[in-house]
Amino acid sequence: MNLIGPKSIASILHLVVKVAFFLAVARVLLLSIAPLLPYGNLRYVSFSVRSGPLDVYFDMFRGTEARWWIWAMELVSRSCHAVVLYLLMLILAPVGAGEPFDPKTPSRLRMMGCVVVIGSLLRTVFCGALLNWWTVTESGAHFSWEIDFDAIFMGIVLVVLAEAFSRGYALKSESELTV
Amino acid sequence: MGIRVHLDRVMLERGISLTELASRVGITMANLSILKSNKAKAIRFTTLEALCKELHCAPGDILKHEIRAEETE
Q1: Which one of B25, B36, B41 makes the best mutation probe of the A interface by having the most chain A beta carbons within 10 Å?
Q2: Which ipTM value was assigned to this complex?
Q3: CATH number for B29
Q4: C-beta atoms of B47 and A174 within 8 A
Q5: Which residue segment(s) compose the domain that B61 sits in?
Q6: Labelling A85: which of A22, A25, A144, B22 has CA 20 to 30 A away?
Q7: Longest dimension (CA), chain B
Q8: Which residues contact A1 (CB under 8 A, 6 or more apart)?
């Protein structure tokens, strides 16, 4: 089985990412309307907030006053996740069709890198600045400031890959016009 | 680009069509058309050699360096 092209691993990956993207969108939509749903049906809704060494679980409707911030943070985080999946789906589409050097791939990779870094920084700001103040007073849990270096590293890698794809596309277009 | 391809003029002088030249040189009509219309970014030595052989000319008859207006300023 080929790695790229029609009926290849890349085309299967494209399909898998497409399904994951629609599931992520459904999750964002469900999360965005969660506060409007009746209390009784949402007892099971809880969000995991991870920052530093602590994993703290909150029940959205029975938890602390921080619940709205947690909800907003989860919404932003899940939206970033959906955007990354959407961009990955767009990048994999031409690869699955056998054309890895698409003119739009570099800008998509750059955007993906920015979304990964910004999403991670937003999460850090939410956890570190806002939740710290609320949860210390209300639940006793403590959040430490911790920057997600993995996400920043991933963002840099994606931007570098974008430049590599940009040069690859330039080479490809030049070779196409070589007689 | 400062290099201009004068393939059409040489072809006219030799009385050879684009289709015939493409088949003799062994490149596609599309590629020869790209070369003729000055859209090509590069030309292989093998292609140039085959063109010169079929058209009985030198590379300088096909390719000319033209100084652009912005280069003279």
Answers
A1: B41
A2: 0.72
A3: 1.10.260.40
A4: no
A5: 3-72
A6: A144
A7: 43
A8: A7, A8, A9
The neighbouring-strand residues paired with A58 are A47
Q: Which two tokens stand for residue B45?
A: 């030595």
Report which of A75, A80, A106 is spatially closest to residue A169, judged by C-alpha positions. Answer: A106
The pTM of this model reads 0.71
Query: Is B47's CB within 8 Å of A179's CB?
Result: yes
How many angstroms separate the CA atoms of A119 and A73, rounded?
10
Place of tokens 């974008």: A162
| CB-neighbour burial class of residue A169 (10 A; exposed 0-12, middle 13-18, buried 19+) | middle
Question: Helix A105-125 crosses helix A149-176 at what angle (to 10 degrees)?
Answer: 170
Cβ-nearest to A174 among B35, B39, B42: B42
Report how many domains make up chain B: 1
Sequence ranges of the domains in chain A: 9-176
